[in-house]
Write a structure and sequence with these properties.
The protein is of the alpha+beta class. It is built from 17 helices and 23 strands. β6 and β7 form a beta hairpin.
Length: 527
Amino acid sequence: MTRSVVIVGGGTAGWLTATYLKAVLRDQVSVTLVESKNIPTIGVGEATFSTVRHFFEDLGLEEHEWMPECDATYKLAIRFENWRADGHCFYHPFERPRVVDGFSLADWWLHKRPSDRFDRDCSVLAALCDAHSSPRYLDGAMMEQDFVEDREDSMFRATPAGRTTQFPYAYHFDATRLAGFLTRFGVQRGVSHVLDDVTDVVLDEQGAIAHVLTKEHGPLSGDLYVDCTGFRGMLLNQALGVPFVSYQDTLPNDSAVALRVPTDMATRGIRPCTTATAQDAGWIWTIPLFGRLGTGYVYASDYCTPEKAERTLREFVGPTAEGLEANHIRMRIGRSERSWEKNCVAVGLSSGFVEPLESTGIFFIQNAVEQLVKHFPGDGDHEALRASYNRQVGRVMDGVREFLFLHYFAAARSDNQYWKDTKKRPVPDGLGERLEQWAARLPDQETVFPYFHGFEPYSYVAMILGLGGLSPQPLPVLASLDDAAARKELRSVRDQARTLVGRLPSQYDYVARLHARSSGPAVHGRS
């Protein structure tokens, strides 16, 4: 049985891994994390999607214990601006369309076309985003309409492997503050924290890692090593030589520039969504935290220089950007051919990254560490476990690649060479056939990427109907059916959305209440 784990690298990936392993495996395994005092973390991953709630559940953490510490807010959707045309917007909400007479409400909507906004007609969350509403009442109770905690029969289910319930929200948080919070949380629960530089990775005669050499603490050894060294891939790619598989032929955005913008959020309000605003060579994210905005321009360096990207971002932010330090990031888009090689597992950016769109970076970390626990090695040969782990992790990233490619390919925007080229790039294997199927009927469980990758068919539907570049046809049979129940359900969505907007507090007011309840820097959770 593997008894000791050495994690190289801190930040979000390292501390999510360390705390999760310690919470699940407890005293059966010793966990050591070594990180440099001199290498800054990227610290940009400030948005998630709804599966992340399970991570905090597994640590035994309540929202009032960690959200104020991390400047966190709720995220109910992603808002896409200018992807179809300037001035147009739509939401990708964490909400499945309802089912009427055996057909998705999305199919009925496509048949009836009550307006040009599928999201607002079929989702209550779109209205909550527009109104800057909280998904919880001031007493902490969840909003109505089947968004009930831990109810197995909720119509709004998520799909992380082994999970059956979905929440209607994810989180935004300050990634640097989350790493600091998890550092304290992990150390209190027995994670050994070493602040030092790793200067070398020493291999044994079989080519596995024998130990890592640190500048001040000498050699550190374990049964299993976790590479959380970011895009460097110090252990997996550099020391063990695992090749990297690039996705840039289909996803060209390889750079980003980010700003942290101090903002009076009480005056501005906190819209409970990430906003992705299309630009000439990519898109700009806007993430509302409790005390500031996180914003950044994700762009393709073949179409835009870093200087132009920073200038574009500052103009987008306006006068408040003056004097703020910009963080320029070069991204490695793709995945390692194998994320587990010999006695080393890569988690986070060293494993892979498929650009920031749809906030999958933290999801990849969560999926990797959950799968590591499921495949945790015992005695003897681990080849079958490694192979199974590598298949699952690889398929998750390949599936996300396909879903993100769809965002650009299906966007109606084509006003310059960058956006024209998004329609000409090589289509990932299998997607071409699926696109043909989606022209005749909206995506369903049988026609999306066939392996778990975090996105259900409703996400594909929301993007296709929102982006406007494809022309899906309504199901012919619906013209022969009575649509009374569908019309009633569409009215019900509108009425329920109006009721919730009238009842729920603003997100700012609810999160301010969490801050007032917070007991400060103490870290709790289950022991």
